[in-house]
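Bump. Still looking for Phage shock protein B structure tokens.
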Amino acid sequence: MNPFEMVVAIVAITAIASVVRAKYGVVRRGKGEDFIQRGPDPEAERLRAEVKALKDRVAVLERLATDGSTALEREFEKLRDRD
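Sorry for the wait, here they are.
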């Protein structure tokens, strides 16, 4: 193995090791390595709940657009009470 091939092999091994460490959540801090526990992200959960609420509202509005006028008035009252 010539020196060029050895350098390429070392760079490839280092790159692969970095990808594996990132995938499993290993972070270097100081002289040691720590694992980062990946749990549910509260911001992501909040956004999921908000999207679900918006989808529910859109479903109600779609239903309102296709119903008769008396049903429309009742649904508007339900929506006013919800907020």
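The first helix runs from residue 3 to 24.

Edit: fixed formatting.
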